Amino acid sequence: MNLLGTATQRTILFLIADTGAGHRSAANAISHAINIIAEREQEEWQAQHAASGMEDEIAPPPPAYRLEIVDVFEEYSRFPLREAVKLYGPTIRYNPKLYGQFFHSTNREGVVVSVNTLAAPLVLNGLLRLFTTVQPDIIVSIHPMVNFVTVRALRKLGMKVPFLTVVTDLVSVHYSWYSPGVDGYIVPTEEAKRIYLQRGLDPRKVHVLGMPIDPRFSLPVASKEELRAKFDLLPGLPVVLLVGGGDGAGGLRTAVRAISEARLPIQLMVVTGRNRRLYANLQSTRSRLHVPAKIFGFVNNMPELMHAADVIVTKAGPGTICEALACNLPVVLSGYVPGQEEGNVAYVVKNGAGVLAPDPISLVDALRRLIVPGSAELRLFTEKATLLSQPMASFEIAKCIQNYMESGIERYGRQAGQWQYRQRKLAVRLRAAIRFRRSRLRVRLPLLNRPLLKRHFL
Does residue 269 sit in the same domain as residue 380? Predict the structure, then answer.
């Protein structure tokens, strides 16, 4: 008997944009946690079913989950919005100060409302099509730029499904994250909640549950000694892990060179992510370094690498910071994106879990202090990191999403009976828009037959 065959299916739609790797990573982390919870629920139900021997004596099987993660701007927006969003990566890489100025200048109500008014027509029809196609039981946004327009799309369709926002900035929460009309907000820190309350929004809708990180960070791992043996590290020598994010950014080459030239008594593990050129460069120069080093590309065993290390050196991305804290690992921040990540630096430093070292000299000085045998500073950083650790955050967020979804179904009922009507309504709306554009084109085409206009436009 296929016990899953009779289970009700719940559809969860995650809205993201691949501006950096963090939003997709957060969606993946929550999705993995939901799948783990679903598997446990199914195992418990099967055990009860086997013990009772009669189907009518136990509750119906727990729901199965269909999880959809959609890059809204890449898949459902139109030019020029789709191309404008792609400028995020090059801007923070080559001109971070410009991005910082943009972040601060747009972080207020009037600008956010104006930008959303201009951008909404370029993505609204795509969202209408997405929602009526996927037919979600709940929508979860993990990107600030999709919140206002999602509320508008839901109202346009008359959809009665819960809409949640999962904030993935620790402290520097942009105004666009909090959109009136959202049913619930999941935030990672008390600082993020404080900004929410300052907006005058409903305090009953905000939940401080931590940053969504891969559920594997909640699992037990081998001892530090066993992990170091696994990675062929030298015994008795402090281990520093250097991470530059999924794309290998963050000045890794400069940091490795500075540590090598200082001849610190340490060994390195360097994760270059998807930056193949940096990986090849460090591999080719590894034999000339004055410190032992292991070079990795993109990895899927970050929990093991972090547990094997004594200190991590990374840019101030919120995901990597919270992963390190989940491993009780002291953090040395090598840099940050102005505006967006400034609060992350303050979060680590003020809570005593690490230090900012934005240049080679301060980086070497910080590591020199931390690797001293019996370092009191290292011990303090480790203790504070442990206090901030939230390895179970993804599970808490997953449970919150499930609760909102079931509450929405109980309150509004399943929406399936109304989807055909909504799809017909959407189809009529889109056909009308197409006819309107074609009619405008027919009006203008005869004008192009004039000789003067032909020379300019044909």
Answer: yes
Residues 80 and 206 in one domain: yes
Closest CA to 335 of 303, 362, 300: 362
Give the Cα separation of 245 and 228 in Å (integer): 22
Q: Are residues 179 and 312 in the same domain?
A: no
Distances (CA, A) of 440 to 81, 430, 432, 457: 23, 16, 12, 17
One domain for residues 26 and 128: yes
Contacts 24+ apart (CB under 8 A), 190-197: 191/343, 191/347, 192/167
Structurally, the chain folds into a number of domains equal to: 2
In a domain, 425, yes or no: no
What residue spans of 208-351 are helical by DSSP H? 224-230, 252-262, 276-285, 302-308, 318-326, 342-350
Q: Which residues pair with 333 in a beta bridge?
A: 314, 356
Query: Would you say residue 419 lies in a domain?
Result: no
Which string of DSSP letters, residue by residue, matches 192-238? HHHHHHHTT--GGGEEE------GGGGS----HHHHHHHTTPPTTS-
Q: Which domain CATH number covers 197? A: 3.40.50.2000
The answer to whether the Cα torsion of 353, 26, 402, 158 is positive or negative is: positive
Residue with tokens 């901030």: 388
Q: Given pLDDT bands bounded at 50, 70 and 90, which one contains residue 264?
A: very high
Are 386 and 403 part of one and the same domain? no
Whether pLDDT at 209 is above 60:
yes
The pLDDT value given to residue 57: 58
Confidence of residue 51 (pLDDT cuts 50, 70, 90): confident
DSSP 8-state code for residue 58: S
- Comparing 59 with 63, the larger pLDDT belongs to 63
Contacts of 422 (CB under 8 A, 6+ apart): 132, 157, 158, 159
380 and 279 belong to one structural domain? yes
**Omega within 30 of 0 (cis) for the link into 80:** yes
pTM (two decimals): 0.87
State both tokens at 330. 């002291």
Same-domain pairing of 36 and 126: yes
Neighbour-count burial for 270-279, b at 16+ CB within 10 Å, e otherwise: bbbbebeebb
CB contact at 8 A, 186 and 209: yes
Looking at the chain, the number of H-run helices and the number of E-run strands are: 20, 12
